[in-house]
Design a protein that fits this description.
Layout (H helix, E strand, L loop, with lengths): L1 H8 L21 E2 L15 E3 L9 E4 L4 E5 L14 E5 L5 E7 L16 E4 L2 E6 L5 E6 L5 E10 L6 E4 L6 H13 L5 E8 L5 E7 L11 E8 L7 H13 L4 H9 L1 E5 L4 H6 L24 H15 L3 E12 L5 E6 L4 H7 L1 H9 L9 E3 L8 H8 L5 E8 L2 E3 L6 E3 L2 H20 L56
Parallel strand pairs: 4-6, 14-15, 14-16, 16-19, 17-18
Antiparallel strand pairs: 1-2, 2-5, 3-4, 5-11, 6-10, 7-8, 7-11, 9-10, 12-13, 13-15, 17-19, 20-21
Length: 498
Amino acid sequence: MTTNMAERSRTAETGSAIGSDDIIAGNVSKYTVLPVGYCGLPKKGHLIFDACFESGNLGRVDHITEFEYDLFIRPDTCNPRFRVWFNFTVENVKESQRVIFNVVNFSKTKSLYRDGMAPMVKSTSRPKWQRIPSKNVYYYRCPDHRKNYVMSFAFCFDREDDTYQFAYCYPYTYTRLQHYLDNLQRRNMDYFCRESLGLSVQKRQLDLLTITSPVNLRPGAEQKVVFITARVHPGETPSSFVCQGIIDFLVSQHPVAKVLRDHLVFKIAPMLNPDGVYLGNYRCSLMGFDLNRHWANPSPWAHPTLHGVKQLIVEMYNNPKINLEFYIDIHAHSTMMNGFMYGNIFEDEERFQRQAVFPKLLCQNAEDFSYSSTSFNRDAVKAGTGRRFLGGLLNDTSYCYTLEVSFYSYVLGGTTSAVPYTEEAYMKLGRNVARTFLDYYRLNSLVERPLAPTPKTRKEKLPLFKGTTQRGQGNSHAGGKPEKRSQALLKDQPLSRR
């Protein structure tokens, strides 16, 4: 328990604590906000707020004027220092009713709201998530709220019968993942296996996927393993879209996916913190732990999902027939643009240089990935992360990364224009990550024929809210020239790239 108290006392990464008068215990539930002094039944236009649903978060609403409301994020369960994720609905609106919502208790001061990010919105008649126009969003230090940073946005309700939902970023719930994995299971693919690696504190399933050709799983067969995890931080929803993009590509009939399945074993744990996701937390588990600081000594009762994954990785490490070649933990970043990676620093210069090869190749494949933002460090505050812990545990043929992707947008190489991410763009990054594994091994003259360029795909236009903007696509990033590594794995095969 001493470790827990020490963890909660730090402020470098977690943000600020809240005052005793701001303590919020739970989410609002069908809460009707009435003007001060008003008596009688609610009328049309008296807004009803709700966050009592999966991944919902809104702890309190204060009526300021007829047009203005202060909104308070519910802190992570058992940890008041984390207040970033919000996800709530509003109903009982009047047509053309204009409001200003002020989110007043963010725990972080730096935010992509300074750079044009905007909340997401959808409604019952328009179920596709869209961004509120950035011109209607303001991020500033407010003297009325202890000089905390406040994000205010203006919105006009245009359909009386709609229920509107607002969120920090595209939600990706535990239930959505379960439905997605159920659908994959029903396809009865012999190269796809889903199993439960354990249960969370609240008895939710920790799914483990194995994607590989069945021949690689025969008793005594040597295995080259790529291990991928996501959603250790529950509010970092883009990581789930990236992870789904990886899975979608690996189980597809694409020629590159077939080659990868023939020669590699992919182990994927797509949601390390299912309780935190379900509860609408931003960073912590049910019990208030940042699981990505407990890899060194996870508790089977306090951090059961992390304990199960670590136990499996250690078992694979101790198996002489298994070589764990890659570990990638997927996250989302609240202050940076683009996708990028964190890697480790090693005394061995050759190993350090080899570690840079994969992100350089990914930069060539993905227009939204930035090698210039990729960094290698050994910061003390990151000591308990999966990347740092496993980088120290595994041997010098293993490479451990954190893959980060922006909550907001990417900037194309040679331009300054920000392209907001969509759900599809996040999944496209995942597909490009998967493809890059073949490029990595192809460096060793494993596939001599160059792959064909990727054809452009047409994107579906979405119905827009009033004043919303559509996202565009841009040109590819320039990447560094990859370095060679001598290792034989894949046979020469003529392939085409999507």
